[in-house]
């Protein structure tokens, strides 16, 4: 049995959200928050691995 997850990669960056690209940082944070809200409120979170351009 595997553990379901969502993994978001900010393309072209290192660790964390220090990307010098505010739009990309906002998109990464938004995707993470959307996943958490869906998980906590009975929504349908999207599991998998995703690249944030």
Outline the structure in words.
The chain is of the alpha+beta class and 53 residues long. The protein has one helix and two strands. The model has no long low-confidence stretch (mean pLDDT 84).
In short:
The protein is of the alpha+beta class and 53 residues long. It has one helix and two strands; from the N terminus they run βαβ.
- The tally of helices reads 1
Shape annotation: globular
Q: Roughly how many Å apart are the termini?
A: 31 Å
Strand content: 15-25%
Average pLDDT, to the nearest integer?
84
The low-pLDDT segments are none
Lateral arrangement of strands in the main beta sheet: 1-2
Biggest sheet, in brief? Answer: 2 strands, parallel
Based on secondary structure, the structural category is alpha+beta
Task: Give the total of beta strands.
Answer: 2
Helices and strands, in N-to-C order? Answer: EHE
Please bin the fraction of helical residues: 25-40%
């Amino acid at each position: 049995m595997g553990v379901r997850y969502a993994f978001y990669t900010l393309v072209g960056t290192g660790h964390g959200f220090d990307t010098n690209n505010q739009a990309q940082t906002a998109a990464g944070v938004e995707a993470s928050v959307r996943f958490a809200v869906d998980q906590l409120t009975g929504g349908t979170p999207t599991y998998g691995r995703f690249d944030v351009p």
